[in-house]
Design brief:
This protein has about 200 residues and is α/β, with parallel strands linked by helices. It is built from 5 helices and 8 strands, in the order ββββββααβααβα.
């Protein structure tokens, strides 16, 4: 009897992003009783020292503008909310470098981020890449992974991994848009939800 050839499933660590993300053209909107609430648009801030900054121009309709400013902490924030919202961005090689060669400086920065009500570490690399051997460093990927988990568990600084630079841009734009939106809703007596009986 002839055996049928079977294909093996690759290890999840070997997977690549096979799907093509659809463009995100509209931000979430707030409404009460089925009526949309008109909310002002925020101004995004990009730290002047940010190297290879995200291009947030495709989200122009979401924001009043994008300005470069020397931020006290992080790479991105919202005008008027710099003391409560901070986003730090790292590509993979920068993350590894920050957790090895410049560890004391980066750990100090993460500790300061932990005191902010809204904070996010965005890593523009798949989680499987963070956990795989690095061609540019002898650093053990387990050390990097455990450091990220320790920062999350110990200091409450969340991180998100995005497979591409472009998905990182969308994540940062969406996060900052929603931080501003929730802040505005709460400050103006609408509560901290976007739609009745929903998020």
């Amino acid at each position: 009897m002839k055996r049928r050839a079977t294909s093996l499933i690759k290890s999840p660590l070997a997977w690549q992003m096979a799907d093509a993300p659809v463009p995100h053209s509209f931000p979430v909107l707030a409404e009460r009783g089925g009526t949309q609430i008109r909310t002002p648009r925020a101004t995004l801030l990009v730290d002047t020292r940010e190297q290879n900054p995200f291009d947030l121009s495709r989200f122009g309709g979401w924001f009043a503008g994008v300005e470069k400013k020397a931020l006290t902490l992080g790479d991105y924030s919202i005008a008027g909310l710099e003391d409560v919202c901070v986003v730090e961005r790292k590509n993979l090689s920068d993350l590894v470098h920050s957790l090895t060669t410049e560890r004391a400086i980066f750990v100090s920065r993460l500790k300061r981020m932990s005191s902010y009500p809204h904070k996010l570490l965005v890593i523009t690399a798949a989680l499987s890449s963070v956990k795989s051997s690095y061609p540019f460093s002898r650093c053990n990927p387990n050390q990097v992974m455990q450091a990220l988990i320790a920062v999350l568990a110990g200091w409450g600084v969340p991180f998100v991994c995005t497979e591409t630079h472009e998905l990182g841009e969308e994540t940062v734009a969406s996060y900052l848009y929603q931080v501003h939106l929730y802040h505005w809703l709460e400050s103006n007596g609408y509560g901290r939800w976007l739609v009745d009986d929903d998020l």
